[in-house]
Amino acid sequence: MADKNQLRQEMRQRRRALSHTERSHASYALAEHVAASRLFQTSQRIAFYLPNDGEIDLQPLIEYAWQVNKQCFLPVIGPRNSRRLWFLSYREDVRLQVNRFGIPEPVHHPGKRQFKPHALDLILLPLVAFDKNGHRLGMGGGFYDRTLAFLAHRHRWRKPHLLGTAYQFQQLKKLPTQPWDIPLDAIVTEKGLIQV
């Protein structure tokens, strides 16, 4: 665990050290790779995230998704004791509020429909590090793994598809894994799409 925590610190520091220009170029390049992928083109309900702590910014891709009439969603952290994610619709006019981790998320009103992950076609996940086998190191809270645990029991039909997003330097040869880790279907960086 100490190795994972040290790795998280090092990778997060490298992400935060990128210049505004480097981040912007990477965001637009990543958006082009995703938009050209079959995974994106065949998906209608897509969950994105808003960047935090130096994560690659998906805003150019979100704006393209709006243009081509995809239904866009953002994760919302459930009640304090649930440690799971729900997904709310995200459009240009949606009001955002900062959650307990300082991450913007849609304001939830009573009666506003919450989507469970199995209702989505594609989820783009942020990550701290990844390997070519689709293993992902997240921030350590386990929110995505708990939310997507149901996928571990599916062998033929997998929905939603999971696409990790990162900068190329976040790729490592091999990551340590745990039995509860949910592997990715693919990873995309500013250099291209990596199928698992």
Question: What does this entry look like structurally?
Answer:
The chain is an alpha/beta fold and 196 residues long. The chain has a single domain, classed as NagB/RpiA/CoA transferase-like (Rossmann fold, 3-Layer(aba) Sandwich). Helix content is 25%, strand content 22%. The strands form 3 sheets. The protein has a 7-stranded mixed sheet. The chain starts with a helix and ends with a strand.
What would the principal axes of the Cα set say about the shape?
globular
CATH topology name: Rossmann fold
- What is the helix content? 25-40%
Low-pLDDT residue spans: none
- Secondary structure class reads alpha/beta
From the alpha carbons, calculate the radius of gyration and give it in angstroms. Answer: 16 Å
Q: What oligomerization state is this entry in?
A: single chain
CATH superfamily: NagB/RpiA/CoA transferase-like
| Measured distance between first and last alpha carbons | 25 Å
- How many helices? The count is 5
Largest sheet: 7 strands, mixed
DSSP, total strands: 11
CATH C-level class is: Alpha Beta
Residues in β-strands, percent? 15-25%
What does the secondary structure layout of this molecule look like, with pairings?
Blueprint: H1 2-16, H2 20-35, H3 38-41, E1 45-47, H4 59-67, E2 71-77, E3 85-89, E4 96-98, E5 104-106, E6 122-126, E7 129-130, E8 136-137, H5 143-147, E9 161-165, E10 186-189, E11 192-195
Parallel strand pairs: 1-2, 1-6, 6-9, 9-10
Antiparallel strand pairs: 2-3, 4-5, 7-8, 10-11
Helix pairs in contact: 2-4
